[in-house]
Amino acid sequence: MVVGEFTESADLVVIGGGPGGYVAAIRAAQLGRQVTLVERESVGGVCLNVGCIPSKAVISVADEYHRLQEAGSRGIRVASASVDMSGVQQFKAQVVGKLTGGVKELLRANGVTVMEAEARFVDPHHVRVVSEYESKKIEFRHAILATGSRPRNLDSVPLDGHVVLGSTELLALDRVPRHLVVVGGGYIGLELGTAFRKLGSEVTVVEALGSLLSGTDAGLVRHVSRQLNHLGITVHLNTRVESLAIQNGEATLTVSGETGDFAVSADSVLVTVGRVPNTDGLDLAEAGIELDERGLVRVDQRLRTTNPDVAAIGDITPGPMLAHKASYQGKVAAESLAGQPSAQDALVVPAVIFTDPEIATVGMSESQAREAGYEPVTGRFSFQANGRALSLGHARGEALVVADKTTGQLLGVHVAGPEASSLIAEGGLALELGATLEDLALTIHAHPTLPETLMEAAEAALGRPIHSVVRTR
Amino acid sequence: MAAYEWKLPDVGEGIHEAEIMQWLVAEGDEVAPDQPILQIQTDKAVVDIPSPTAGRVAKILAQEGELVRVGTVVIVFDSASGSSAAVAPEPEPAVSPSSPALPVSAEKQVAGRRALATPAVRKLARELHVDIQQVHGSGERGRVLAEDVRAYAAGDSRPKQVPGPSAATPRPRSVQPLAEEIRVPLRGTRRAIAEHMVRSKYTAPHVTNMDEVEVEALVAMRQQMKETAGEQGIKLTYLPFIIKAVIAALKQFPYLNSSLDDDTKEIVLKPYYHIGIAVDDPDGLVVPVIRNADQKSLLELAREIQDLTDRAHAHRLTREELGGSTFTITNFGSFGGLFATPVINYPEVAIFGTGRIQKRALVVGEDDRIVARQVMSVCLTFDHRVVDGGTAGRFTNLIMRYLHQPANLFLEMS
Fold first, then answer.
1. Is B198 helix (H, G, I), strand (E, B) or coil?
2. According to the CATH classification, is domain A5-151+276-337 in 2.60.40.1930?
3. Which candidate in A432, A438, A439 is best for mutational testing of the B interface (most B CBs within 10 A)?
4. Would residue B404 show up in a list of annotated catalytic residues for this protein?
5. Does residue A35 sit in helix, strand or coil?
6. Structural contact between residues A75 and A394, judged by C-beta atoms closer than 8 angstroms
7. Terminus-to-terminus CA distance in chain B, angstroms?
8. What residue ranges do the domains of chain A occupy?
9. Do A5-151+276-337 and A164-273 have matching folds?
10. In sequence order, what E strands does A26-134 have?
11. CA–CA separation, B18 vs B21, rounded Å?
């Protein structure tokens, strides 16, 4: 029960404790600010608690199990192997617990006050913070808005938490669904669909658009589509869910596609049709914080909103909804509000997708480079010709580099293949440092390793690959 | 669409060839009439050439860095006007003396492209309040280095330059020794200077005489006037006084304000006094000209010097501001030099140089007292074909008299 309202004052209030907010809070504390972090659920946000991290734990387990099924070809005879989902959940909880515990400890050690509460603006320099136990007003000098995003709902397929699930509920399942229908062939749908297929579910993907992983280069997606097919995942493109009926824990979806309407039944349905920014329920207008035409918070290069004492970072700002973008912005915002000349000026934001094979991209694609006025040159190299990939038994995919023909300057690096998510780091560094194809080609890459493919792709772009044949026209 | 072959126009009197500095358009680009398409370097100035037509750039025939003769086809347009002939009529001179082409701003040249710099250098730029897009990158591919940012912040605010071979000999950078020989193409301003100097030295037999003049009165007078000038925002240096002293002497020695016409074997005496002032620029020496300097007041001269110098550093001088002088003054003292043997700004017949002003021990009076006085060293290099040592000496002495007793300059004022 709310007894009364007190007004406290704070130097800096960070609203939201995800990978954007907690990083901003720590950096601000390092700069001598008195920081109050307001988080309505768990510190670590979606990413650590129910997103990137737990999904990677489940995906890794699924991969490992799947590799055991195919281990005969590598000389391992497996008498029997089975999945115990409660054991998987324990492992997942351990990973999450370790990381969120670490974040809490870091916040504590940096002197950040953490409040488990919801915040909304009262005026340009006040938020009302409401928790289970109290309500108080905080007068702040500066604030950083880092409220993140949540899954988009589909009216035709409302979540019920038992049969129709979001990614959070699916990752918390203590059973392997018999038949999982994934509504939405974006990266979350494909990552989790693939993982549950490997854990033993029958999986059907229903995508409204004409391609999977829309927005990702079709050449890279091809490698994933091929593997989905190999794994026995059914994919329906250009197909919409018209209606849903649930009876006795069994869902029946009526879908309409190019071939007409048909019904799909499943014991679990995963809905992943994008994410929406959490900009509602904050009374942003009271603080003079404006949204743009797409409903994202308008920010300048220093991440200040239209209220100069409030910065915004992460999924509620323009750009990709990615944790590492939010963390980068968190540091920029904290420094900028502390009077440092920091600005968001990173050239590129890498994107990684934990499908099979993984896809990772940084910088421009060939067509983007052409649109930007460059004359692009590309080079590719297949993991089929990479010693390490073959010895891992994981040689699907290719590495691709895009560069400016005149100067050789790298414009983009794209990988579909084993450990693509790690390989892309080299590409990001190369792009930020303005490296050329020659720089990449002349850097000695250890043998036998996966990153050699990037060096080979650069050499291919220069017309002189060692381990692939240059086709003459 | 008709093909429009466009020839390099005559951009000024006596220019037979020009160097293609930078194309501002690429093949396939759509251009509008008067849109700058090309920067060329003539013997002294960089000139922007506007597009003569609307249409699409079909082919670029001259490479950046290439020396091209006037009248050579350098670019072909697919002209928007379907009626034009396959070969365009002889174009008008693109740059007429009365309408200097507008310089293209640095922003325009780099529109859309981020400066090539590492994240750490970009951060440094923010810390030093430098817009990195404006910084001239000295690294390969125009890469902006930390030292470029620091130099820019320290006031070397040269606008971003055209990429490609540098117009000037690279300035020695910090203390890093060169690992190997570097061959820098002789291009642009550096090449123009080289050719000009060779022509002067090989044509005119140079003789230099040197002297010293006590300038206590001049120092005091300038000190006094400096404040008044400063109130009007004008930086009053010694140069306006020197110009006045030189002109006063030139009026009595007309042969020093002349040139030798080699073809007709005639000495051309000039009735006007256009004074060239040698300006040091990181990209090389330029000599902007103050026209009719005899008709201008000290303040007017000071203001004009300031303007010309600023624009010389910004590479914003027009061709006619860089030519037509009748006599040149060089202030080598501004780099601390005491004596020098300046090279004549051919086809002029003499150049007056001033060294640094400093206190020196002089022997004065009947009783041979040694006193400390402000002394300026001066020199005159003259073309011995036109001027003899006696004339040159008397001319120098007269200038020195005016510098010693600057009040006498008022007697000369018209």
1. helix
2. no
3. A432
4. no
5. strand
6. no
7. 62
8. 5-151+276-337, 164-273, 351-461
9. yes
10. 35-39, 113-116, 118-123, 126-130
11. 9
The CATH number of domain A164-273, selected from 3.50.50.60, 2.30.33.40, 1.10.620.20, 3.40.50.300: 3.50.50.60
Residue A379 burial by CB count (10 A; 0-12/13-18/19+): exposed, middle or buried?
buried
Distance CA B225, CA B297 (A): 13
Lowest mean pLDDT among A76-85, A242-251, B100-109, B350-359: B100-109
**In chain A, what residues touch B117 (CB-CB under 8 Å)?**
434
Shortest distance, CA A413 to any CA of chain B (angstroms) = 17
B105 secondary structure, DSSP code: P
Q: Which residue from A341, A407, A434 is facing B118, i.e. has the nearest CB?
A: A434
pLDDT tens profile B147-183: 888 888 887 554 444 433 333 444 434 445 666 777 7
Report the alpha-carbon distance of residue B94 to residue B47 in Å, rounded: 10
Give me Rg for the CA atoms of chain A: 24
Beta strands in B294-349 (DSSP E): 327-330
* The CATH homologous superfamily of the domain defined by A351-461: FAD/NAD-linked reductase, C-terminal dimerisation domain (3.30.390.30)
> In Å, how far is B117's CA from the nearest CA of chain A?
7
CB B405 within 8 A of CB B411: no
Q: Is B302 helix (H, G, I), strand (E, B) or coil?
A: helix
List of residues 6+ apart from A149 with CB closer than 8 A: A46, A275, A276, A277, A278, A315, A316, A321
Task: For residue B4, name the pLDDT band (cuts at 50, 70, 90).
Answer: confident
Residue B98's pLDDT is: 34
Environment class of residue B12 by beta-carbon count within 10 Å: exposed (0-12), middle (13-18) or buried (19+)?
Answer: buried
Task: Name every chain B residue with its beta carbon within 8 A of the beta carbon of A363.
Answer: none
ipTM over 0.85: no
Task: Give the DSSP per-residue string, B53-70.
Answer: SSEEEEEE-S-TT-EEET
Structure tokens at A138: 């905080």
Report the residue of A335, A347, A368, A370 to disrupt the B interface, i.e. the one with the largest count of B CBs within 10 Å: A347
Which of A119, A148, A142 is closest to A307 using CA atoms?
Answer: A142
Are B123 and A407 a contacting pair at CB < 8 A?
Answer: no
Residue type, A331: K
Helices A52-69 & A187-199, crossing angle to 10 degrees?
Answer: 40
Query: What are the residues of chain A with a beta carbon less than 8 Å away from any beta carbon of chain B?
Result: 341-343, 345-347, 372-373, 407, 409, 432-434, 436
Question: Which domains occur in chain B, in start order?
Answer: 2-100 (2.40.50.100), 204-412 (3.30.559.10)
Question: Hey, are the CB atoms on A432 and B129 less than 8 Å from each other?
Answer: no
pLDDT under 70: residue ranges of chain A = 1-6, 471-473
Of B119, B122, B141, the CB nearest to A409: B141
